[in-house]
Amino acid sequence: MKSYIRLARPNQWIKNMFLFASLIFSRHLFEGDFVLTELHAFLVFCLLSSAIYVLNDVADREADSLHPIKRTRPIAAGTISPAAGVVFALLLLVVTAVLAGMLSRSFQYAAAIYAVLNIGYSFWLKRVMLVDVFIIAAGFMLRVLAGAFAIDVEVSHWLVLCTLFVSLFLAISKRRGELMLVRDANNYSERPVLREYDIAFIDQIITVTAAGMAISYALYTVADRTVAMFKTENLIFTTVFVLFGIFRYLFVLKQKKIEDNPAVLLLSDPVMIVNVGAWFVSCVLIIYFNDIMSWF
After folding, report:
1. Enclosing H/E stretch for 285
2. Does 295 score more than 80 pLDDT?
3. What would the DSSP string read from start to end of 79-93?
4. Which of 39, 224, 234, 278 is the most exposed place for a label (fewest CB within 10 A)?
5. Per-residue pLDDT averaged across 79-99, rounded?
């Protein structure tokens, strides 16, 4: 059972927290029905992403066995057979389909597109330079949209654009981590597409996406629709945490040895955890200030 839990990669479920963006920024964070619906959607994406991770491990079992870190995964290590992995993935997909069927049709479409794109990524698209990065980014954007569809709220175009830059930033950082783990081109057999990248090129993309992320978020906080909805311009002050988070991430990425998984940094770096927590608390206080004051 422990091997199957590892195979499902629950540590990766942090990525599905993007679904809650719409809940927070639509001013429904403290409404029970909306929270329960979003938690339902979150569970669907956790099971769905786990099923795709399993299929990916089955498809990459030989390549993963050559990777310095991925070789410990249950299928690559031989703890779980590929056939058993496929059965496990199918069971997860069946449960996912049942749970998704209880939510809106728009949410189901978003989840289905997410599944198709990521299965395509696992078996083919990850071998195409830049397309692989944009597929990863599309997964984050679909999470945000799915979260909005689940509770039937509109998503700001600026928020979608900001999510695009955030997801591209994380995706290209993942590629950089992979390159740092496997510097010798002769060892790239487990991920041939890495031959097309180099550190200098990736660092240029990281600079562009980091700037785009900061600018798009800042513009979102002062957009007319945002100010009208929250009845305040103070959300602009949360940009400080966004900038600090970007700089901290870049520092750790370039100065310290980390895995090729961005989620590891978000879960293990105390400074980053405190910064994300401060950003979240400040957003909640600013957006829900009048509601919070009314409780007192």
Report:
1. helix 270-287
2. no
3. SS-HHHHHHHHHHHH
4. 224
5. 93
Measure Cα distances from 257 to 216, 251, 260, 269 in Å.
29, 11, 10, 12
Burial class (CB in 10 A: 0-12, 13-18, 19+), 101: exposed
Round the average pLDDT of the chain to a whole number and report it: 86
Going by C-alpha positions, the residue among 139, 142, 42 that lies closest to residue 34 is 42
Considering only 113-127, 150-164, 188-202, which range has the smallest mean pLDDT? Answer: 188-202
- In total, the chain counts a number of residues equal to 296
What gap in Å lies between CA 296 and CA 289, rounded to an integer? Answer: 11
Report the pLDDT value the prediction gives residue 237, as an integer from 0 to 100.
Answer: 94
Q: Which residue has the tokens 């090129």?
A: 201
List Cα–Cα distances, 76 to 50, 60, 142, 191, 217, in angstroms. 16, 8, 29, 15, 40
**Rounded Cα gap, residues 14 and 273, in angstroms:** 12
In terms of pLDDT, which residue wins out, 111 or 265?
Answer: 111
- The residue type at 155: V
Token readout for 271 is 């400074």
Judging by beta carbons within 10 Å of its beta carbon (0-12, 13-18, 19+), is residue 98 exposed, middle or buried?
A: exposed
Cα three-residue angle 148-108-91, rounded to 5 degrees:
125
Residue 136 contacts residue 114 (beta carbons within 8 Å): no
The answer, yes or no, to whether residue 185 has pLDDT greater than 50, is no
The residue written with tokens 């909805």 in the block is 229
Residue 260 has pLDDT above 60, yes or no: no
- Quote the pLDDT of residue 108: 96
In this structure, are residues 103 and 40 in contact, taking their beta carbons and an 8 Å threshold? yes
